[in-house]
Each structure stands twice: as C-alpha cells, then as structure tokens.
Amino acid sequence: HLAIASPDVTGASAGNWSVLLGDHAKKSDATVSLNKARHALGRSLSSHGLPQVVRQKSKGNRVWRAEWAGLDQGDANLFCKKLRLHNQDCTIFPGQRRNVSKHLKS
C-alpha cells in the first residue's frame, strides 16, 4: 500500500521528494533497510537520489530514519511501486521536510 504523507504539494519541486523506508531504534537496522531497498530497486533506479540514514526525534524518542531523498515525484512513485513488489513498505513525502545539515549518509 502506497502512502503519501500530504496531498498538498505546493513547493514540492523536482528533486525535492523523499521515500521513507522506516524508523529504527538502531542505526544498523536503518542501514540494513537501505541495503534491502537498493537490492529491490536494482542498479538503474538505486543510482537516483540520495539514500541516507537520518537521526530523528519521533514521539519523544530518538530514531534512525532510513530514506531516499532528492527524487522527483515520478521517481518517488516508481521507487515505492518497485519496493512494494518486493513486500517493502514505503511512504512518499513531497517537498523539503527538514534542515539538510542534519542528514547522515549511510
């Protein structure tokens, strides 16, 4: 099932879309999630955008978020479609959601 975080896409320019793969208690688990997505997407798709692990605060807890950022809307939709074929959940987020300086590459 494909989830879109917000139907309001004003300001969501090309290359500003992200695909959330999941929140994890451990950074290593988030990295595994990215690697599974890389495998599911294949070489051509996984070369698009920026796979990353980001430390986030969610519901009062610190989590490690696995996501693929810097996509255009079409790629984000294609990523999720392909991931779902491999039984992986994903959520699409349009537009900038946070300060880029907080990103930690995996």
Estimate what percentage of residues fall within beta strands: 25-35%
N-to-C CA distance: 26 Å
Q: Determine the structural class based on helices, strands and strand pairing.
A: alpha+beta
Topology, number of strands? 6
Output the radius of gyration: 13 Å
Task: Characterize the biggest β-sheet.
Answer: 6 strands, mixed
Number of helices: 2
Poorly predicted runs of 5 or more residues: 1-12, 98-106
Shape call:
globular
Order of helices and strands: EEHEEHEE
Provide mean pLDDT, rounded. 81
Helix content: 25-40%
The largest beta-sheet arranges its strands as 1-5-2-4-3-6
List the defining traits of the structure above.
106 residues; disordered N terminus; single chain; globular; alpha+beta
Describe the structure.
The protein is 31% helix and 33% strand. It has a 6-stranded mixed β-sheet. β3 and β4 form a beta hairpin. It starts with a strand and ends with a strand. Mean pLDDT is 81; it is low at 1-12 and 98-106. α1 (27-46) crosses α2. The chain has 106 residues and is α+β, with helices and mostly antiparallel strands.
How would you sum up this structure in a few lines?
The chain has 106 residues and is α+β, with helices and mostly antiparallel strands.
Question: Helices, strands, pairings?
Answer:
Elements: E1 3-4, E2 17-24, H1 27-46, E3 50-58, E4 61-71, H2 73-85, E5 91-93, E6 103-104
Parallel strand pairs: 1-5
Antiparallel strand pairs: 2-4, 2-5, 3-4, 3-6
Helix pairs in contact: 1-2
